[in-house]
Amino acid sequence: MSLLCWNCRGLGNPRAVRCLIELVRLKKPVVVFLCETLLDKRQMEQIRRRLVFQHCFTVDRSGRSGGVAVLWTNEVQLSLRSYSRNHINMGVDNLGHHTWRFTGFYGYPERNRRRSSWALLRELAAQSSLPWLIGGDFNDLLSPEEKMGGAPQPNWMLQGFQEAVEDCGLTEL
C-alpha cells in the first residue's frame, strides 16, 4: 500500500494542482494526506474528482491559511476517528489485512504554539494501542542537521519535539 503526504502550500494555484496530479500518477498512492490546502470542502471535492479518488475528508481552511484533507481509493477502508485544523486521525482496514491507524498531521507553524502541537501528538498517541503511522508536516526538527539556511533552531524546540516523539513511541522512517 502506498501513502503520500504533501504540504502543498495552496492548491488554488493551477501549477500546484498539476504537480499533485503528476505525483499521484507517478506514485499511485492509495491514501493521500494534504496540508496547507488553502481550500474548502467544495474546492477539495473538485480536486478529488480530478485525481480520481473515491473518497475525501476535508477540514476547511481558516481564513487565508490552513486546510487539511485525506483522499483515498476503494482499495482501503478508512474510518474517521478524530480531526482538528491540525490533524485527521483515521482507522485503516486493508481489506482483510491488519487494522491500524493513520494520522495526517500539520503542526502549528508559529513557534509560540509548538507546545500545543506536541500536546496534540501526545493526546493522539494515547487514543489507541493500534499500530500507528503518522505523517505530514510537523513544522519541527529532530536535529539541527535538518535545518537548511536561516537561524539555527532553538534548543528548547529541538528538545521539546524530541521528547514528544519519544513520549509517543514514534520512530522516524
Account of the protein in words:
The chain is an alpha/beta fold. The protein has four helices and eight strands; from the N terminus they run βαβαβββββαβα. The protein has a four-stranded mixed beta sheet with strand order 1-2-4-3, with helices on one face. Helix 3 packs parallel to helix 4. It is globular. The model has no long low-confidence stretch (mean pLDDT 94).
Provide keyphrases for this structure:
4 helices; single chain; 28% strand; 173 residues; alpha/beta
List the helices and strands and how they pair.
Layout: E1 3-7, H1 14-27, E2 31-35, H2 41-51, E3 55-59, E4 68-72, E5 77-84, E6 87-93, E7 99-106, H3 114-126, E8 132-137, H4 155-167
Parallel strand pairs: 1-2, 7-8
Antiparallel strand pairs: 2-4, 3-4, 5-6, 6-7
- According to DSSP, the number of beta strands is 8
Integer-rounded radius of gyration: 16 Å
Number of helix segments?
4
Shape: globular
- What's the multimeric state? single chain
Helix-residue proportion: 25-40%
* Class inferred from helices and paired strands: alpha/beta
Alpha carbon gap, first and last residue? 16 Å
Any low-confidence stretches, pLDDT <50, length ≥5? Answer: none
What is the average of the pLDDT values? 94
- Give the percentage of residues in beta strands: 25-35%
Order of helices and strands: EHEHEEEEEHEH
Task: Give, in spatial order, the strands making up the sheet with the most strands.
Answer: 1-2-4-3
Q: Which sheet architecture does the biggest sheet show? A: 4 strands, mixed
Give a short synopsis of this structure.
With 173 residues, the protein is an alpha/beta fold. The protein has four helices and eight strands. The mean pLDDT is 94.
